[in-house]
């Protein structure tokens, strides 16, 4: 799930990424173009309902590719993404359009 809050100027957007966690993973990290696909740079916080969440401020006028990394090994897409795009590994990346 994505929640977007644009700044008054419209040049930046605070995006909250929330993953429902049906796999019941113990940890989740947000990896994408905005952090060099790092598996450590953007850890997500586990919420009381078992889901994971993190908020980033990103530039508008772009579409970013991203995925969630569960327990440091399982790459999954966001079921609430703005769209999906094939990747070079035979899967798909989630998209957030700002």
Task: Characterise the protein shown here.
This protein has about 100 residues and is mostly beta strands. Helix content is about 0%, strand content about 50%. The chain has no helices and nine strands. The model has no long low-confidence stretch (mean pLDDT about 95).
Summary tags:
98 residues, single chain, mainly beta
Q: Outline of this structure?
A:
The protein has 98 residues and is mostly beta strands.
From the structure provided, what is the oligomeric state, counting identical versus distinct chains?
single chain
Hey, roughly how much beta strand do the residues contain? over 45%
How confident overall, as mean pLDDT? 96
Q: Provide the succession of SSEs.
A: EEEEEEEEE
What's the total count of β strands? 9
Helical element count?
0
Distance between the termini: 14 Å
Low-confidence stretches: none
Principal-axis shape? globular
Radius of gyration: 13 Å
The helix fraction, in percent, is: under 10%
Query: Can you summarize the main beta sheet?
Result: 5 strands, antiparallel
Estimated structural class: mainly beta
Chain-wise SSE layout:
Blueprint: E1 2-6, E2 12-19, E3 28-32, E4 45-46, E5 52-59, E6 63-70, E7 74-76, E8 83-86, E9 92-97
Antiparallel strand pairs: 1-2, 2-5, 3-6, 4-5, 6-7, 6-9, 8-9
């Amino acid at each position: 799930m994505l929640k977007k809050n644009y700044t008054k100027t419209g040049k930046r957007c605070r995006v909250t990424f929330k993953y429902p966690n049906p796999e019941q993973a113990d940890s989740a990290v947000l990896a994408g173009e905005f952090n060099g696909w790092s598996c450590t740079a953007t850890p997500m916080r586990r919420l009381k309902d078992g889901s994971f969440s993190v908020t980033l401020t990103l530039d508008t006028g772009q579409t970013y590719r991203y995925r969630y990394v569960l327990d440091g090994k399982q790459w999954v897409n966001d079921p609430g993404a703005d769209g999906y795009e094939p990747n070079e590994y035979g899967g798909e990346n989630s998209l957030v359009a700002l």
